[in-house]
Amino acid sequence: MFRAGRRLHAGDWRVRVGFWGVALLGLLLCASVRADVLHLATGDDYAPFTGTTLPGQGMLTQVVRAALAEQGMAMTLDWLPWNRGYLKARRVEYDATFPYVRSAEREAEFLYSAPIYLSEQFFFSRAGDRIELDDLPSMTGRRLCYPLGWQPAAMIQQLIDEGILLRHSPLGLQECARLLLLQRDDLFIADRHLGNSALRSTGAEPSAFHRSQTTFHSNTLHFIVSRQHPRAAELIERFDRGLEALKASGDYQQLTGRYVE
User: Fold this and answer.
1) Which of the residues 54, 89, 121, 233 has an alpha carbon 20 to 30 A from that of 214?
2) Coiled-coil region(s) at which residues (predicted)?
3) How many domains does the chain have?
């Protein structure tokens, strides 16, 4: 026999069912939110594109974060040495990484987003030992500083493979600028903004360096996802839609325009 005080009325059942329904909905919503948080990796000291000390952690960090937000996605970001971050992203220890140029080797392992930035490459050398594009055929024994994990253009890679250029690979471009100043390396190749930022980090006068008069090469930078990632195609598609919306609204131009010299 049930005691009257413990008898459940129809209204009580409705309250309990309503309570658990709300709780279940809350759990589902939380799971949905967690599913839309991407875990990314990138490298430091790549000003103005990425950097822990830069406003907004760098121009392209802001672009990536805003493009994801357009699709209702958030992100966490870990700062790792470039090569380590790349390898971890390839093994799907991270959902994606950025910013990377295209190469045949990478395209075999990653899906690429639409371009997030067009980069124009220049030669940077010492003012007292200027190097221009026309000097390439006679550069035997020249010491090229090209950071670890960076992929040279095909022409430069061929010169390295043939032993004409001697590649030195420190962890970042700022180190290349210092080594150039110390005459331990002869040149580095970089986007205008990257190169100028690296030169400023040495504290030397701009007149101590020389930037080639013409661009050596143009390439695009991308957000990339490992082909092993179970959601690779979906993440690239959503990122591209977010990037397109960012450009259509004018926000992309506003973000990148702050860094145009």
Assistant:
1) 54
2) none
3) 2
pLDDT band at 137 (very low <50, low <70, confident <90, very high): confident
Helices (H), the chain: 10-35, 59-70, 82-90, 104-107, 154-161, 173-181, 192-201, 232-249, 251-257
The dihedral through the CA atoms of 68, 219, 45, 254 has a sign that is negative
pTM: 0.67
Q: Are 143 and 159 in contact (CB under 8 A)?
A: no
Domain range holding 124?
Answer: 120-217
Contacts of 162 (CB under 8 A, 6+ apart): none
Secondary structure element (H or E) that encloses residue 187, with its range: strand 187-191
> Tell me, what CATH number does 209's domain have?
3.40.190.10
DSSP 226-242: ETTSTTHHHHHHHHHHH
In the predicted model, is pLDDT for residue 109 greater than 60? Answer: yes
Shared domain check, 101 and 124: no
pLDDT 10s digits, 14-63: 545 454 454 444 444 443 334 589 999 999 988 789 999 989 999 999 99
